[in-house]
Amino acid sequence: QVSCQTADFSEVLALDFASFKLVMDHPRNEQFGFASVGYTFRNSGIDGCSKTIQATKESLRKISSTVSTVTCGGGKGRDKLKDMMEQHSAVSKSFSIPPDSTAHLVWDFFSIFAILFYAIESPIRLASHVRSGNLDSFHTSMVLGYVIDVLFFADMILRSTLYSFSTHEHGKTVVVSDPSAILRRYRSSPKFRIDLLATLPLDILSVWTGGHALFRLTKLLRILQIPMSISSLQTHLDVCLDAKTSETQRSVLLMMLYSLLLVVWCSSGWYALRQDETSLVSVYWTITTLTTVGYGDVTPQDFVETVYALFVGAIGAVFTASIVANITSFFHDAELTDNNYDHQLHCIKRFMDRHRVPAETSKDVAEYFSLVEEEHGGLNEPLLLRDSIPDHLSASFLIHIAEPMVENCDLLADCEPDFLRRIMVSLEQVYVCAQYTVLTSEVPSDRAFFIKQGSVELLVERQDKRLEMLGESEKKTTLLRKLDANDCFAEGCLVERWTSNPFIARTTSESELWTLKRSVFKEILKDFPKSRKLVEQAAAASKGAATTTRRRASVRGALKAAEFVRRKTALYVHPHSHLAQMWFGVLLAAILYSTIVIPFRAAFLENHVMSWDWMLLDYTADTIFFADLIIRAFFLGFHDENNNLQVDRRAILANCLRSEQFKWHLMATVPVETAMLLVPKSRFCPLGPLQAWSCLRLNKLLRSV
Question: pLDDT, tens digit, for every residue of 330-339?
Fold first, then answer.
């Protein structure tokens, strides 16, 4: 009856009548079935609409009566209710800085400039002091530095007390302003650890020891916060000013800032080494060296300057290659295939930028691609199994992947093997991010979930009696159970149709879930009457419980509790802990020393004699390697094929002995250089003592494998 004509190219979402009728007549929506109201909603006099309007009026009347009772006062019960309302009002009016406040935006700009001040001023001032020979001389920039220190300390206090944050509850975004929750969130963030180390006033020690400029270098730790600050700025521009910034713009800004800092640092080092060089010439030398141009008009004059020039040149090669690669990626994608995850992520980000998708949703999409890239090497496993592998091999892969999950499900206990195999090959893979609500209380589930990786919390909603008396419908959630790998939940909906979910399911980490639809399960049951009977018996024994049945839950709970106690009492190093990451950094430094210094000495230092300094450095690296072998063999935990953390000493040793790294460790540990004590020196001619020592230590290069 209405004519519609677009004035320009338009994007339209259409719902046709047949699809709408199909949804309304679905058994799940029988309470407001389409057929029961004559296939029309135009007439508000229909019985269903009249009842709805009448119920709304009745609710408004009750609320109005409650408010008038409280405001008029009188009576003990009324006074108590009034006190509760006043108390609730006082709690809700506690001061906090909301996540969409422009104060965050202003601070993001300031923090970026303040960090750049630290990163530029500290090396320049240190180079000037080294050149003058006085590390404690006063400079006017120190005053501005201490002002920034005070502002960063104030920021720590605000972040731990007043900076409210957004989180997900019941599938909705909720602003949390509770001071204890704000403090817990800030203390658990990486930013807190960097803030704490960078705020420590270590320069006070220079009053007794001297070297004030050296102690101020701890402020450079804030450079690690540059990506965090830019991401925060990107989010607050979107939230506060509705200004969308693309990932390409963020990458360009990061590249420019890091390039600036690299030029400043390398120029400061060259300025400190060359006493007769000006700052402008130092910058000129740095840029020509980093860009691998090297005109040759400014060259090193001694051994220290030569080593420094080699170091800057090596950095420059990587620096130039990274800039060229980044600039190339901005204009052209090397692999524009459907299976290329970088291309897919790039296209989806452009789509989200065009549609102004909120930053929180954009972050979830980026986390999904990051999970696929890091955990699965960028492979789309469902697509790989479906399109790239024959059906019989694909079924074998699926059975191998799903077997631990399906066998751990009590609902399917004692069923026929063929039935279980059909279940395994019918599962569908799903990746979800941390804090994602898998099941809500509003939409009933039509599928069961099996956890392959990650952890899920089952939460139960309970009405707060105090808020219920106030006429509010807000509910509190309590933890019912925490599930880990190979657990399952919502399998009860496979047997009977749920009208509402008995719990809320939310992931606590990045998780890999496998789902089984109720319609698929029903079709499989038709071919297995015996298994159908067993499933019905298991469902009846559970008395409608939506989670795992009690028959095995207590046993698994006891086993998990015992495993938890064993982990608490065992002496081990978690492979993803900060201690392990720090140790791997130390190990990397030792590997770089061995792979660079030993070949260099063997090739070029023919006229140098052995010294205790070289031996001390060599055996310090050997001590680190030996300690690493002990840690890997007895203390470093690992995840098995089912993603379970193994901390048993025997299991750790067996895993170490099976690894490829062990044999290289063993071969590199052999002290071949002790042959110099047994063989006369003349045997090593024409090599010098240091060259001979280095040649006998070449087996240490096996560490690089």
Answer: 665 444 444 4
